[in-house]
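During the reporting period the student researcher (J.K.) took over the structure-prediction task from the postdoctoral fellow and processed the backlog of single-chain submissions. One of the processed entries is reproduced below for the supervisory committee.
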Amino acid sequence: MTVHFHEEDLPEGAVVMIDVATGNVLAYASHLEKGGPRDLAIEATAPAASVFKIVTGTALVDSAGVSPEQKECYSGGEQRITDKDLVPDPARDKWCATLAGAMGRSLNTVFARLALRHLKPEKLEETAKAYGFGDPLPFDVPVQASALKIPSEGGLAYARTAAGFWNTTLSPLHAAWLSAVVARGGEPIRPRIVSEVDRKS
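J.K. obtained the following structure tokens:
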């Protein structure tokens, strides 16, 4: 299926694609319907949203010892997380998924519950910083640092953050880099748009 967009349908947007093997940026574009020119690809103003589940999933496995095959039954949480969604209830929790399956389907409640039960906020913050949150990403032009504010106490605010709601922002370039790190088995690579500089010209 092909979807066609007209410029008036897209107030703003950015696309970044990175070659996982080399770090070469293959696509790098941004569009703004109004206002002066800006490079949206390096602006960390949009919510990290479900991309942050990569961070939470990593922390759950590496720091909390949760298996990718651990099953969690759930209900609710499609659009938002409430206190009620965090309380296991066999009468309501009619769907179940493993952590790996929840990653593939971006199941908010599974991530929120597992993080609240197994993951200390400082470990989530430590993992997020290892993934580059809070520091400018090394690149050929300056990149705005992706923001991170992990609630220090457990509870609803922390669970929402772990599921990708609130408290984190992410630039499109950082999102592409983060995905490349995962594809490389955890090995980071520096993204680049300049392969060499010819000082003779």
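The committee noted the following: Helices lie at 53-62, 99-105, 108-118, 121-130, 156-163, 172-183.
J.K. will present the remaining backlog at the next meeting.
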